[in-house]
Amino acid sequence: MYKVMIVDDEQFILDGLRAIIDWEEYNLSVSACALDGEEAFSFFTRQYMDIVITDITMPRMNGLDLIRKIKKINSDVKFIILSGYSDFQYVKEGMKLGIENYLLKPINVEELTSTLTNTINKIETSINQELYSKNDLNILRNNILYRWATNNIDAQELTERAALLNLNLKYLYYTVSSIKLLFPFDEHDIRNNKKKSKLVSQALKICAATTYYHQDLICFCDLVGDLVFISCRNSQNGQEKMLSMVLNQVKEILNSKLHLNLFITVGRNYKSYLNVYKSYWETKELQNYLLLLTENQIIHYDKVKSLTENNSVITELDFKSFSKLLISKNTTVIFQFIDELFAKLQSSITTTPSDIQNCAIKILLIINRLAEELNLPSNTSKHDYKKLFSNLLKLQSIEQIIKSVKDEIIKFNESLTMEDLQMTPVVRQILNYINSNYASELSIKTLSQKLNINPTYLGQLFQKETGELFSNYVNELRIKKAKELLLTTNLKTKKIASRVGYSDVNYFYKKFKQYIGLSPTELRGKKKYLRMKGCR
Strand, coil or helix: what is 28? Predict the structure, then answer.
């Protein structure tokens, strides 16, 4: 869990903030409370905190001085300021120090939880930790813009923040576009984080410079490193042309200066700043088409969606129902469904050749997405899928297209083992997540929130399908990993405990002995004895 310290000179505010939300639900724990900045700083020197929520006006040491002193020790700590209306000048100073947000008293619970969620996302996303200078208004600006684009901020708070950041919310129409940078390396490999951060930072500066004289274009970087433009206009006339001109200009500069390929997506035009999130999520949805389309294109939601929505037969094919059919592994039934689907398309007088192709592509996209969700061994890479799509578009008959689709279904079925079929996809997802994140804080509660499933039901389902309680499964895996490290490395026991997910070394000793029958020290002692015996 991430550690939080609350600082305020009013005891009732400290008590109220501790009780106002369920901190554990947000993977947070209130580790310390202090009545002034001096006491808070003393706490901080003894115990690291991830987030500090502090009042400004306090005796002995005020909130701003506290922030300055902590930042000298650790610049990665996130700060949220509690403020009264009379503290407004102090708030401006706090913004210069790089606070995440400021909350007016009395505290609005929704605003607090929204700010905490955004701050946690930022901690967990390494790219934004390096993207901006900590002593810069861009931290607050970027947070507000991201929350606006994702509909994670209420209208009143957005209006207040917009006034501070000189954002004009009085335009009539808004369109969002996203630029996905296609890196020449694996962006998910943590060893490439610095390289990725540097390129994103350079790209953002180029975008900011390109749009400097366009007052109706707002540019920022979201949490996954995509560059986002919000186009604001009072008239729909010429909006698309202007936006297209800027995006093409940005594309050419990024291509030539940073040698990066891009994939640019544009959402629909919406009336009112309150609907910006709709256009933003449309740009994200369109990014799936990178699998099908080539790089360095600008694609629009209206144009692409019309390809798959102009035929009612294609819209009947949804991910959820077809996924269930695929997981059944009943090839006869699946092939019958495919035959009937294409027969229905063929019999419709409105069907065009592109409808047949689009239907096949949609099936292949569903197969690929399901394989990724189930973490199945990949038979077909993204590059291969592009080649497959390209070849599919060249096929001359519906029979050839159907055969191509069925071949991919056979490949998918072959990757599903009997063991896979004994477990529901959700339990497979949990097991995959545990195996990849056993060193992190894990609980049924946090996973149930990720999957949007009732925690009690999820715990019962996990025990039913694995034969073990969730906590036992996690502990067994952690102890197994710890045993491997004890026998194969010279790491200290405390370091190993931390590496496999135990912050309390005493609890680790207790669990280790419970599962292995020996303490970590005894196990290592036995290893040394066997080595010495073998050398005689």
Answer: strand
- The pLDDT of residue 535: 45
Q: How far apart are CA 376 and CA 251, in angstroms?
A: 35
CB neighbour class for 240 (10 Å; exposed up to 12, middle 13-18, buried from 19):
middle
Q: Are residues 119 and 13 in the same domain?
A: yes
Among 84, 28, 15, 23, CA closest to 56: 84
Q: What residues are paired with 320 via a beta bridge?
A: none
Burial of 428 (0-12, 13-18, 19+ CB in 10 A): middle
What CATH number is associated with residue 55? 3.40.50.2300
282 lies in some domain: yes
Total structural domains within the chain: 4
> pLDDT digit string (tens) for 413-445?
877 654 455 566 678 778 888 888 888 888 888
Domain that holds residue 239: 173-299
Domain end, chosen from 374, 399, 420, is at: 420
Triad 476, 478, 483: Cα angle to 5°: 95
Residue 132 included in any domain: no
Quote the CA–CA distance of 363 and 475 in Å, as a whole number.
40
Residue 274 lies in a domain: yes
The SS3 call for residue 417 is: coil
CA torsion 244→250→255→257, rounded to 10°?
A: 160
Domain-terminating residue out of 394, 420, 446: 420
What is the DSSP code (8-state) at residue 279? H
CA distances from 439 to 435, 513, 536 (A): 9, 19, 39
CA-to-CA dists, residue 102 to 19, 99, 161, 164, angstroms: 20, 7, 10, 12
153 is a domain residue: no
Same domain, 19 and 118: yes
Q: What residues contact 239, with CB distance under 8 A and at least 6 apart?
A: 173, 175, 231, 233, 269
Instruction: For residue range 271-285, list pLDDT tens digits in order.
Output: 999 999 999 999 988
